[in-house]
Specification:
about 55% helix, two-stranded antiparallel sheet, mainly alpha, globular
Length: about 300
């Protein structure tokens, strides 16, 4: 599993039985969801959130504060992610996870989802970043053969959905992921499977959080003047010569880059690239509608053009 190689904290003191109980609680709740008829699944989402909150309440009474959120809540979120990585990001049931998280915010302790951003962003970090973003281009970083790409993409998809729902509000992680997928000339050096997975990850963010990301581009969202990590958080890859941060110029570069990648990818990755291009075109294109009306007793048509999606 993904979590065998990435721990949230070296001081991981959650007792084994607590970890097992936490994973079992999530697993039991989601298993019930999977066995329910599709038409009735949405009705279960509030119940799932309530069950999870109730199961976790006894553990949270012995809370130990840590530097980011709490150690215990971080472990709880780590267990939650065990369920997330069990579902490939392309499966429809993956939409359940962000909706359950949204429902959890209705409970007092979970209102601000303590520890979730830290855990999710840490676990969904691009493997290339883990193994060395400053590697020599002539000696590219290697990704272990057993690196769980599917699990990584499931976590990216969850974060992308939460970003689109404006539950995850950090703009840096999506931008880094898109940058590594679409703006880095060293992509091909890591092998076909991982090359395509990075493009998939970039497309997940653009598709799942499209309106949010497009708004950031229109606003020109960028790092503050005193941000020491500005280059890392908002910088661009070597293929994009423009300004740092979110810009419409960068948005259009991504669109062009995806078109360039079409002949280089295959299968599900090609399908995702095509879908992403189509959706990006819809965001910027005006919506044209033909209205059938009656004028002076005679039928006629009016062609109406509306602004883009937002």
């Amino acid at each position: 599993m993904f979590f065998a190689t990435k721990e949230i904290t070296s001081d991981n003191w959650m007792e084994p039985y607590e970890r097992g109980k936490t994973i079992a609680a999530f697993g039991k709740a989601f298993d019930k969801f999977n066995k329910t008829e599709n038409a009735k699944r949405d009705e279960l989402i509030p119940e799932l959130a309530k069950t999870i909150a109730a199961e976790m309440a006894p553990l949270l009474t012995r809370e130990h504060k840590g530097p980011i959120g709490t150690k215990r809540t971080r472990n709880i979120w780590q267990a939650f992610m065990h369920c997330v990585v069990s579902v490939p990001c392309g499966q429809r049931v993956a939409y359940l996870f962000p909706l359950v998280i949204q429902e959890l915010t209705a409970f007092p302790f979970w209102k601000d989802l303590p520890g979730m951003d830290f855990v999710l962003r840490y676990l969904s970090t691009d493997p290339w970043m883990v193994f060395g973003p400053e590697a020599d281009p002539d000696d590219p970083p290697s990704v272990p053969e057993d690196y769980p790409i599917e699990e990584y993409l499931s976590l990216v998809s969850l974060d992308a959905r939460l970003t689109g729902m404006e539950i995850s509000k950090d703009p840096c992680h999506p931008l880094r992921t898109i940058r590594f997928g679409l703006e880095d000339s060293r992509q091909m050096a890591v092998g076909e499977t991982y090359f395509e997975s990075r493009i998939d990850a970039a497309c997940e963010y653009i598709c799942r959080a499209m309106l949010t990301i497009y708004d950031w581009c229109k606003e020109g969202l960028k790092a503050s003047a005193d941000d020491e990590d500005a280059e890392w958080e908002y910088g661009s890859g070597d293929l994009f010569p423009g300004k740092m941060g979110y810009t419409l110029e960068r948005w259009r570069f991504w669109r062009k880059r995806l078109e360039e990648l079409q002949p280089l990818v295959t299968g599900s990755c090609l399908s995702m690239v095509n879908i992403t291009i189509g959706r990006m075109d819809q965001v910027e294109a005006p919506v044209v509608t033909v209205l059938d009306i009656e004028l002076f007793g005679e039928p006629c048509q009016i062609v109406a053009a509306f602004p883009p999606m937002r």
